[in-house]
Amino acid sequence: MSYSIKEVADMMGVSTSTLRYYDQEGLLPDLKRVNGIRVFEDKDFKWLRVLNCLKNTNMPIKKIKEYVELAKQGDASLEERYQLILEQKNVILEQIKEWKYYLKEIEYKEWYYETAIKAGTEEAVKDCTPETPTLAVDRIPQKEKNRKKE
Amino acid sequence: MSYSIKEVADMMGVSTSTLRYYDQEGLLPDLKRVNGIRVFEDKDFKWLRVLNCLKNTNMPIKKIKEYVELAKQGDASLEERYQLILEQKNVILEQIKEWKYYLKEIEYKEWYYETAIKAGTEEAVKDCTPETPTLAVDRIPQKEKNRKKE
DNA sequence: ATAAAAGTTAAAGTGAACTTTAAGTCAAGT
DNA sequence: ACTTGACTTAAAGTTCACTTTAACTTTTAT
Predict the structure, then answer these.
(1) Nearest in space to B87 (alpha carbons), one of B46, B57, B48
(2) Does residue B62 lie in a domain region?
(3) Which of the residues A19, A146, A149 would you substitute to probe the B interface, choosing the one with the greatest number of B C-beta atoms within 10 Å?
(4) What is the nearest nucleotide to A36, using C1' and CA?
(5) Which of A111 and A137 is assigned the larger pLDDT?
(6) Last-in-domain residue among B57, B85, B104
(7) For the domain that residue A53 is a member of, what is the CATH number?
(8) Claim: this prediction has a pTM higher than 0.90
(9) A98 near B56, Cβ under 8 Å?
(10) Does residue B88 have a pLDDT over 90?
């Protein structure tokens, strides 16, 4: 089976211009063309699925491109590609950890407002603190990307 | 205790210019000034912690600003603020679900490369598919933000 | 045969979240 | 008193990931 750019865009939940942009950036290797028109085939979906995963877990376009280039080199780059995947797995694990922490934070806020609404005023909870003490700013987990030397 | 912008920046893992930018955007309400110089006090850290949570869970600056404005209105906005927090809790829950899905995907890739490296060639795994079949593109979870009518 | 719909490109534009620059003020140490 | 370093502002610049535009070609439907 073969698919038009519009069909693939709809399947992936992106716009056609986004797919053309990805193609331009070298993120759609070996894409078939008929009279200059892009034709997606079943084999392409295998990669689109990986692309979707990397993209939605914050891997920059440039790094995805690097991965594509490695893949083009064949078996010689297996180890490098493996390392890149391991790195990304770690990114994902760290993210999940972080989001779980923020879930706790927001659940405290949820409790805070429930209590305040019941009481009719924020005064009732104003001096409360989350279980992990509020003032311990150094306990706020910091994203790698945020850390700065300056 | 009071803290300089640099001290706070270091504690939060951001640059001083980022904090000034947040201030400019109205994200640091009631910030004390001495001779025009920003002075952070303990009470500010309570808010900085919430700010940190909202910011790192993808809430746009503009929406955080709305939250700040609601808070300024006092008890009258309790219900609205509660709803905003509930919405954000959902954002977080959805994100965790999504990232857990991508963890499975990447773990398949991890297995894929481990197998290929052992065999010395990708040929050995080329025709394998993850447990959830590769070609079922419609099973790829799509972020709200990605969905388009076009 | 023809009109409309969908495809193409290169290039310019957008929006979010900062970051940098330039010109200046304030505070601390020698 | 003076230099150094941290602070201030407004405004311009940057980066990323698209999105839009304009001019054009190809495909599809009537």
Answers:
(1) B57
(2) no
(3) A146
(4) C8
(5) A111
(6) B57
(7) 1.10.1660.10
(8) no
(9) yes
(10) yes
Q: How many domains does chain A have?
A: 2
| Residue keyed to tokens 């850390």 | A147
State the alpha helices, DSSP H only, in chain A: 5-12, 16-24, 42-56, 61-72, 78-119
Nearest to A11 among B92, B121, B138 (CB): B138
Report the amino acid identity of residue B36. G
Work out the pLDDT band at B128, boundaries 50, 70, 90: confident
Average pLDDT over residues A13-34: 98
pLDDT tens, position by position, A77-130: 999 999 999 999 999 999 999 999 999 999 999 999 999 999 999 998 887 777
Contact call for B78 and A48, based on CB within 8 A: no
Dump pLDDT digits (tens) for B22-48. Answer: 999 999 999 999 999 999 999 999 999
A85 is a domain residue = no
Does any domain span residue A24? Answer: yes
Structural domain containing residue A127: 94-138
Q: Mean pLDDT lowest for which of A47-56, A141-150, B37-46?
A: A141-150
Give the model's confidence band at A131: pLDDT under 50 very low, under 70 low, under 90 confident, else very high: low
Which residue in chain A is spatially nearest to B80 when comparing CA positions?
A113
Q: Do B108 and A73 touch, CB atoms closer than 8 A?
A: no
Report chain B's C-alpha Rg in angstroms: 23
Name the residue facing A116 among B78, B114, B120 (closest C-beta).
Answer: B78
CA B11, chain centre distance (Å): 18
Quote the longest CA-to-CA distance of chain B: 70
Residue A59 one-letter amino acid: M
Q: What pairing do the DSSP bridges indicate for beta strands A37-41 and B37-41? A: unpaired
Q: A29: alpha, beta or left, given left = phi > 0 and alpha = psi -120 to 50?
A: beta
DSSP 3-state of A115: helix
